[in-house]
Amino acid sequence: MSIVTLERARVTPCGGSALLLEAEGDLTLPTQMGIWNIADEIRDWPGVLDLQPGMNNLLVVLDPVEGDADATAARILARWQDIPRTRTLGRLIEVDVVYGGEGGMDMQELCDIVKLTPAEVAARHAAPEYVIFAPGVSPGFGYLFGLDQRLFCPRRQVPVMRPAGGGVAIGGAQSNLGAPIRPGAATMNPTGWYVIGRATNPPVPFDLDYDPPNRVSLGDRIRFRIERLDA
């Protein structure tokens, strides 16, 4: 699977009042730390309304009246050259996983793609310590960096419906951990990822009863532990 990389960083318009910073080079922890660090600084710049860190990129939403897109873009690029690429990582969260079986219904399909056995996939998936790199498409643990390259697998061209709640999945070069099901939430979700297991003790990452509601942060770490492997 090929991953597109840039030779140098760039900032491009995104819609009518936003800018997208795309970092140069491969997706690495130091580069992502730079994304987090520059986001902390840009947050206080005049004319900036919101920020959304992504994988190797940062979306900067500007005030349509007070924001100066050209000046802000130039300032972002200039600051990016010198932004520190180090940062203290967050807490370690350990999660038990039942790989394969009913909760990991895509395990065999992924095994066929990456040419490994279910036991090898589970062992390789549980070996690294993952870092929460960027928010996901819904409140939760976001995109996890650290996946063994042997497990890289292109996402499905056509999404499929899979059970929500604690799913452990692989898509592209990333892994993902689903949050527990909230009362009243959908029990099935569309996804292009391959669900290879289910966490038996997924912590709650987002709770409106807390201030702030995010119970996990970018830079927190996740360690998966093999509870068992089901056929």
Automatic annotation (TrEMBL):
Q: Which Gene3D superfamilies match?
A: Cyclophilin-like
InterPro entries in the cross-refs: CT_C_D, Cyclophilin-like_dom_sf, PxpB
SMART domains from the UniProt entry:
AHS1
Q: Give the stretches traversing the membrane.
A: none
Keywords of this entry: ATP-binding, Hydrolase, Nucleotide-binding, Transferase
Where is the Carboxyltransferase domain positioned along the sequence?
Answer: 9-216
Q: Which GO terms describe its molecular function?
A: ATP binding; hydrolase activity; transferase activity
One Pfam family here? CT_C_D
Q: What is this protein called?
A: Carboxyltransferase domain-containing protein
